[in-house]
Amino acid sequence: MTLWSWQRVYGAAMDKIVDIRAVPVINRLAQECVEGPFDLAMRQRTEEPLERYFLTAKGPADLEHWHSLLAKNTPDTLHPEIPVFVAQGARDLIVRPKVTQDYVATLCSAGSKVRMVTLPNIGHGRAAQASTLSAVDWMTDRFAGKSPPDDCGR
Fold it and tell me: pTM to 2 decimals?
């Protein structure tokens, strides 16, 4: 979805890094909505061809235009007084756990108090649902004026 949307928003040509056979699949995925578990199953069927052919470039994030766009679209640190809640599915293949861990490390280095919840055996599609109670409890405590937990290990 990043490739598809950045091509439209920024004019970053997918054809330099995507197999031509993958383009119709990517376009079809862009039209599918995910509103529940049945939608996820349908989406997985749609994306199956991408397991056989997808990217033509190794390390597309290192290629220019895409590298600059990744930097431009990477969240920055926050003011240290703003607490942060982060949930990550350990089996997420879309937002890789290492990417989230690196971002949390950046937040921690900047002085943020971060609550990091790692969800074992959870992929991308179920992370929000699986972390809902933790997130709501965390927010409730912030509104109640409780001190935010800090998993930064300072």
Answer: 0.74
